[in-house]
Structure to design on (116 residues):
């Protein structure tokens, strides 16, 4: 897996945001990989996790997507991926930080338990 932070080049809309993955998001991706690999094989698991990562990295140029969920956590945004994954993230001045990668209907309320 290539879970990491990656700065992106400047785009027409201005300076791109750096995309970061919180430790919990990295753990979520790792657990998702293991879950899928056990059921469908390593190749399919890797391809799925890489598609999620590529989607996340795409937030560099247009970060303010998804639905704001200030009721759960100040500044929190939620967006879906391929109808099975919910991505929870924060947009900073020059970063997008993915906090969680929740698969298959996991409760978004787990974010209430995180540190502020």
């Amino acid at each position: 897996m290539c879970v990491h932070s990656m700065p992106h080049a400047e785009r027409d809309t201005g300076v791109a945001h750096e995309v970061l993955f919180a430790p919990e998001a990295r753990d979520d991706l790792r657990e998702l990989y293991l879950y899928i690999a056990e059921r469908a094989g390593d190749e399919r698991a890797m391809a799925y996790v890489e598609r999620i990562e590529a989607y996340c990295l795409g937030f560099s140029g247009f970060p303010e997507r998804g639905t704001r969920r200030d009721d759960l956590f100040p500044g929190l945004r939620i967006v879906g991926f391929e109808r099975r994954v919910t991505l929870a993230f924060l947009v900073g001045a020059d970063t997008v930080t993915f906090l969680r990668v929740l698969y298959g209907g996991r409760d978004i309320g787990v974010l209430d338990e995180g540190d502020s």
About this structure: The chain has one domain: 18-106. The two ends are 28 Å apart (CA to CA). Helices lie at 23-40, 42-57. The mean pLDDT is 85.
